[in-house]
């Protein structure tokens, strides 16, 4: 069934349905086990393996490079569909898609050719950038690359290493001997690499967003990139992955609440109808949830158009135009963020108004939607976004493109 038939609106571009069709049976398989995985804390190794084999990790690559040639709006629409099946899987692949986007933007022909081939083969990358400690926020990474016994080696410890447990490679943020920021790609199975599933958040519990430890991991010089050379719209890109994931959660909420209302037989003596499926007040709640999911998807795809313009501007020899496109993409992502977050967090609460107390049983698994949405909405604090948007509107101040998190030096 197409997006139009489901009343979610047409997908981006005439070829979207053909692009999405091969993946939808896999999405359905993932969705069928999503609640059981969440209840049993069963990490989605099999789901990610199926997606790798189907070429999902390469959807952004050009067709001639072994990919699907998806535009950014098409890509984010696919993420919405995947997130409706299981938002944990999307989050676990977020770092891989960001790494892939960087490869698509690089002007280093050798690096591009090497990684396009790896990604086309189904290899994926996880992330290891965030650190716990004072230096991470404003100064330098405590994770370093230095020479030892004639080889370059990586040492350090990272947290929020989302997706690395499922990946073939890990993209690591580090400092070189001079203290400059660099990015390092290492094999997850390399000697000295340990990835630990110690993420204990109440939401997105299956993303393996825990600790990664690096002890004298040998690094090839060709796998080091200066941090400043990474793609310029990366902050907006990573935020849009969150928004697509939230929009997908909205669709999952809409589907779950509608199914529960259809199946529900218990009612109240003071209800407006004999059955919940005929109760106009219950139907109103279901409709409000579905409308929120629809709006979240539409807003996300509108912001994705801004990212597409930033991507295209990178390949035109006009630095000023590229800078402007990046700034606008970041602002559109910020403007979308607070609205989409509010819509889905509210929908995740409203669903219980359409049902009875039995809907709160753990076995129903409906609480996972709020837990997952709340966790995603906490990654990039919403409280700063309205100020940034307002500062642009009033004073023309451009948004910050890159930022780090950590204990302040004081």
Low-confidence stretches: none
- The CATH topology of the largest domain comes to Butyryl-CoA Dehydrogenase, subunit A, domain 3
Instruction: Report the principal-axis shape.
Output: globular
Distance between the termini: 56 Å
Major sheet summary line:
4 strands, mixed
Describe this structure in words.
The chain has helices at residues 16-20, 24-32, 34-40, 45-53, 72-85, 87-105, 109-120, 135-138, 234-263, 280-313, 319-350, 367-378, 385-395; strands at 125-128, 144-148, 151-158, 169-175, 181-187, 193-196, 211-219, 224-226. The chain has 410 residues and is α+β, with helices and mostly antiparallel strands. The chain has three domains: 16-124, Butyryl-Coa Dehydrogenase, subunit A, domain 1; 127-229, Beta Barrel (Butyryl-CoA Dehydrogenase, subunit A, domain 2), CATH 2.40.110; 234-395, Up-down Bundle (Butyryl-CoA Dehydrogenase, subunit A, domain 3). It has a four-stranded mixed beta sheet, with helices on one face. A four-stranded antiparallel beta sheet has the order 2-3-7-6, with no helix packed on it. Strand 2 and strand 3 form a beta hairpin. Pathway: Sulfur metabolism; dibenzothiophene degradation. This is Dibenzothiophene monooxygenase.
Quick recap:
With 410 residues, the protein is of the alpha+beta class.
Q: What is the topological layout?
A:
Elements: H1 16-20, H2 24-32, H3 34-40, H4 45-53, H5 72-85, H6 87-105, H7 109-120, E1 125-128, H8 135-138, E2 144-148, E3 151-158, E4 169-175, E5 181-187, E6 193-196, E7 211-219, E8 224-226, H9 234-263, H10 280-313, H11 319-350, H12 367-378, H13 385-395
Helix pairs in contact: 2-5, 5-6, 5-9, 5-10, 6-9, 9-10, 9-11, 9-12, 10-11, 11-12, 11-13
């Amino acid at each position: 069934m197409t997006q139009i038939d489901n009343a979610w609106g047409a997908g981006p571009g005439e070829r979207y349905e053909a692009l999405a069709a091969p993946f939808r049976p896999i999405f359905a398989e993932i969705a069928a086990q999503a609640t059981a995985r969440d209840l049993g804390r069963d990490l989605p190794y099999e789901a990610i393996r199926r997606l790798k084999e189907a070429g999902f990790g390469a959807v952004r690559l050009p067709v001639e490079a072994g990919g699907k040639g998806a535009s950014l709006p098409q890509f984010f629409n696919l993420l919405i569909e995947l997130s409706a099946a299981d938002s944990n899987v999307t989050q676990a692949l977020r770092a891989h898609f960001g790494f892939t986007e960087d490869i698509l933007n690089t002007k280093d022909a050798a690096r591009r050719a090497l990684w396009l081939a790896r990604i086309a083969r189904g290899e994926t990358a996880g992330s290891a950038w965030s650190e716990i400690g004072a230096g991470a926020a404003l100064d330098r990474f405590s994770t370093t690359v230095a020479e030892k016994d004639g080889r370059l080696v990586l040492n350090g410890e990272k947290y929020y290493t989302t997706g690395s447990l499922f990946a073939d490679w890990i993209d690591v943020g580090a400092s070189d001997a001079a203290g400059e920021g660099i990015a390092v790609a290492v094999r997850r199975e390399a000697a000295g690499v340990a990835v630990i599933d110690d993420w204990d958040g109440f939401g997105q519990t299956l993303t393996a967003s825990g600790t990664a430890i690096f002890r004298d991991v040998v690094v090839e010089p060709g796998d080091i990139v200066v941090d400043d050379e990474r793609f310029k719209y990366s902050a907006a890109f990573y935020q849009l992955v969150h928004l697509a994931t939230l929009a997908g959660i909205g669709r999952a909420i809409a589907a779950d609440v509608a199914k529960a209302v259809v199946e529900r037989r218990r009612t109240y003596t003071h209800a407006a109808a004999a059955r919940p499926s005929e109760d106009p007040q219950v139907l109103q709640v279901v409709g409000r949830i579905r409308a929120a999911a629809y709006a979240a998807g539409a807003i996300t795809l509108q912001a994705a158009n801004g990212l597409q313009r930033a991507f295209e501007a990178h390949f035109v020899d006009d630095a000023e135009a590229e800078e402007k496109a990046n700034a606008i993409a970041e602002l559109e992502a910020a403007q979308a963020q607070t609205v989409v977050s509010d819509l889905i967090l509210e929908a995740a609460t409203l669903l219980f108004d359409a049902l009875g107390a039995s809907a709160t049983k753990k076995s129903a698994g409906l609480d996972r939607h709020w837990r997952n949405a709340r966790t995603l909405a906490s990654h990039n604090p919403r409280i700063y976004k309205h100020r940034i948007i307002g500062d642009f509107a009033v004073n023309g101040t451009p948004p910050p493109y890159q930022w780090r998190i950590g204990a302040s030096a004081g």
